[in-house]
Amino acid sequence: MNQEKINEILELWESPDYNGNKDEFANVDLRNAYLRNAYLGYVNLSYANLINVDLRNAYLRNANLSYANLSYADLRNADLFNANLSYANLSYAYLRNANLSYADLRNAKFSDKLIIKNNKRSYYQGSDYYCWIFENIIKIGCEVHSYQEWKNFTDKEILKMDGKRALKFWKKEKEIILKIHDNL
Questions:
Q1: pLDDT recorded at residue 89
Q2: Share of the chain above pLDDT 70, in %
């Protein structure tokens, strides 16, 4: 689907007179599409190919993104409140400031070895990085690792992630982050 066709559909959806079916994007290939600021509330994007799509500031409340491939997608500041992201591939997706409140992230994939097992999670705004804490993984900034890996990282390994800034953050926030995890 080319960008022109995407823009046509978005214009139609955003018109106050539109009462049609929002299933037009289910199973569709939208890789590399420009959907910044798009209003996609309640849209069905299940099984869609959204690799490298620009969804910055997009409104995706209550959207169905189950099984969608969102790898390398730019979801900065996207509103994914109550969105269904179950089984979605979020590998290398840029999620800074994305609203994931009440989103269904069961079995969502952050990488081949890091798959969210259930929807139990906590969010923590550290001094320099955003932290998402799940039962089996922790995502700090762009780094996603298992709880055990975070717990056992050496100072040298943390330095490799983002230099002195990361090490300073980790020394200050490690205990808090691990305690939040322990209380999930």
A1: 95
A2: 87
